[in-house]
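Writing this down once: the sequence line spells out the residues, with the fold written below as integer tokens. This is how one looks:
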Amino acid sequence: MGKVKTSKRPGAASGPYDRKPASKAAANTNIFKFDKDYGQHILKNPGISDAIVEKAYLKPTDVVLEVGPGTGNITVRALEKAKKVIAVELDPRMGAEVTKRVQGTPLAKKLEVILGDVIKMPEMPPCDALISNTPYQISSPLIFKMLAMPNPPRIAVLMFQREFAKRLVAKPGDALYSRLSVNVNFWATCKHIMKVGKQNFKPPPKVESDVVRIEPLLGSARPNIAFEEFDGLLRIAFNRKNKTLRAAFAPKEIIGMCERNYKVYCSLNNIPIDESLADISAGGDDAMVDSADIDMDIDGDDDAQENDEDAGGLDDEDEDMPAFFKEVGEDFKDEKTPSRNPKSKVGLVVRAKIAKVLNATGLAEKRSRQCDQNDFLKLLLAFHEEGIHFS
């Protein structure tokens, strides 16, 4: 009996194990495409994912917030140790991917995926721990949003671009010391955990990364200072961190902002404004600093200009500052009230108070890059005694 012959088209497979591998071009069309606009660089090294979760010291009762879970490499490990993981993801495709990763397993009941931008949320979901392979473009907003929470997480283990991570742990006098450094070390303790090479990501980013652990101060250890107030002072001080604090508070926009806040403070507390201080300030009393002295400080601080150049333009690249000062500048360009003029009666009072505080604290000639968090706290409390506020 003859064998039955079957026709077979060229290149067809006769069974599941006879399939030819797809061409490289065809394979590329099936790969999950990552969106660099979302900062999607997926961590592919399982050892680093293990280390991030391990360094979070998770407890079985913990609720973990993960920002940008990607395909779930860190998520799955956190689910195995914690009570619940809330994953906030901007990209719906990634949200579906991480959900599918645990679908049909006991871990699925412990996972909640929220689609959206964590920075635009009115409040971050309450949590015991925060972990993230952080998209680089939200690094600073994420840190400040976490620190500003009424009840911040016990611990945060976050991956950042290396330069940003170095700013987090920088000390006074370091080239990368900034408003970010002061804020983090005032409200939390921060420690460098490990370096992560770009080859550990898919697709690889252009820069190296570092992992840091941040432990916010909780309960009675948390400073009894409004975050917005302390941060408002730092925004002014670090606008040009290599200038003296005397020069940092000299611009008319800053005087105008302080004047406006001082008026509100006096009005709310029924405090009459002592305009005699304006006469002292205008007269150039030795205990004060008149406007001519301050203007000279701004225009003629040669040492500070040299230091700015030595720092390689780091101040100009500080993403934390410009938006605030642009908004302030625009407000004062359009404003028709007396607060636009720093030489108004109230403006001179405020100028005198600022000079008094800077001289009394001994910080007038000190530069922001040389001050630690205790110096800034002393400065803030002295300003509050004079009715000057920054939020």
Remarks:
- The first helix runs from residue 24 to 30.
- Confidence is low (pLDDT under 50) at residues 1-31, 284-340.
- The first strand starts at residue 42 and ends at 43.
- The CA atoms of residues 361 and 379 lie 7 Å apart.
